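Data card: per-record layout.
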Amino acid sequence: MTLYSAAIFIGFDLYEEAEHGVFEYLLSLPVSRKQLVLGRSIGGGLRAFIYVGPLIAVSLYVIGSLNPIAFLISLFALFLFAFGVSGMSITLAVIIKSSDRFDILMGVLDALIVRLSTAMYPLAVLQASNPFYAGLASLNPLTYVTDLFRWGTAITALSNPLLPVLVVVTFFGFFTFVGVTIYDRRIEGGGWQ
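The structure for this 193-residue chain is written out next.
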């Protein structure tokens, strides 16, 4: 949940850069817009990952032993997810171009994505208590990343970790591609407003 919430803040950075004139400077640098948005997405993903790193380390210390390969796969999935969320945030920021509207939309998305996932309760608990809620949670990419992390830290078992990995890679790829494409088209004339 914290990783998702930290990764969306890259979109707010775009508004701050536009307000202070940094945006025009970034567009004048000898890098393509595609490289710029990829760099922003990677930076947003890394920042979110670094932000939650100490939390993960403390949790793992408390949990104890785990499978190193499964743990590395789950960490990689967490990074790809954070990268994808950063791409989603950049995409929405460039489309909306209004910090107030963006703030409201990200608050609504944050509430929906985090609460309609298995981040708080495993899917088995949700299926027993509310099958409709469990059905919605099974469509959420945060559910798959959460399940992978629980599997990687040996908290729960997964019968097939390939499906969650594919969902996370698809989420990452989609928002990276869409973010690069929309960013390139919306900023075509240079300038933010």
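Known properties of this structure: The mean pLDDT is 82. DSSP finds ten helices and no strands in the chain.

See the next section for split statistics.
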